[in-house]
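Database export, one record per block. Field names are fixed; values are copied verbatim from the stored entry.
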Amino acid sequence: MAKTGDQDRDALIAQASQWLARLDAGRTTPEAFEAWRSADPRRAAAFAEVAAAWSKLDGLRDVEPRKRPMIMSRRAWLGGGAALAASLMAAAYLERDEFLRARTVTGVGERRTLALPDGSSVELNTDTEVLWRFDDKRRRLWLERGEVALTIAQDALRPFELFTRQGLARLAAGQFNARLKPARLDLIVVAGRAVIETAAGEAQAAVEGAADARRALAISAAGVAVTAAPEAEVQAVQAWRRGEIVFEGQRLSEAVEEYNRYLSRKMIIEDPKVGALRLGGRFLTGDPESFLDALHATFGIRTITDDPSRIFLKSR
């Protein structure tokens, strides 16, 4: 008698088989597939298993006719039962490996830690999306939006590659922070080595000892600028991983813009004089009320909250 867990797995494999068949036949869209897969991490794992099995079948198809056993078509296998098909499929869509990437997303104000198969870890800050795919040759992670702190495990055989729209970063074992901004990627090397490849050229930075200065790389369409990372930036990285946000004399307009990353209800400054005020302090990203209380106590700033999506900051 089959156990419940086995039945659940068979059901997932069957669903994954059906989705792969639809993709192969052009009877669905990438958006519909992604909605199904992202709803449950077990679905992504089942689909990867099905696609890998289908790939093995394609390998058998490449064997010379006199050496290979009789092999039915993909759709014949699908017609013969999803569980049997799943064990013998090969993926025409394997070349479109975006379907095989696992995906993790954080909402606004949310943080999450992701453990990767090689022992590396990724900490996702607010409103962040990453995809990844590991095989026996490469470790690849795509940063689609937001900010991540990376702890990369040693692997002499497989490089770790971070893909962004600004370029490719090859990362050695160590610690890094990557943040996507509208026109650039900010990469801080806390420990380890990073080699950046962009359309404008290559650059690299390394932090080999605890006493070495952290390195900051700003990657944009113009190229890569490599500098010593200001201590304030290093502290800001460490702070967000604790759920904190630190200001050290920034303009209030800049502080509000930064804090708004963590808020669904955004703070708005309409008076340039208010925006020019300088602010210092340490606050919790999940407690904007303490930030607003500090603004009132320090600068006498009033808050107007009659808009459901915005909080207006007004001078006296």
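Remark 1: Residues 168 and 197 are 5 Å apart (CA to CA).
Remark 2: Residues 4-95 form one domain.
End of record.
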